Predict the structure.
Amino acid sequence: MAKALELHASDGDLIILISSSGKSLNMVRAADYAKDRGLIVVTFTGFGIDNPLKGRGKLNFWADSRAYNIVEMTHHIWLLAVCDLIIGKAEYPVS
């Protein structure tokens, strides 16, 4: 992921990183790279409240569960809600 950011991220980008446990070294390294580059890091995690990825985000969405399916489905709902708000501004009224 860090290499992908190195190749494709632009200044001012916002990076969304998702890890159920928040312990994925791939995601943690990507967060470190993004922060060092001055990019905005948003995280979606679960499990422990003090997980490593969550500690690296400027904005963090944390699901208070240790069950992968609960964490992942909560992340899906949150991400779809964000998409709906973004699309809604352009296409239809959202409340």
Remarks:
- The chain has one domain: 2-91.
- The longest strand covers residues 14-19.
- The mean pLDDT is 94.
- The longest helix spans residues 68-91.
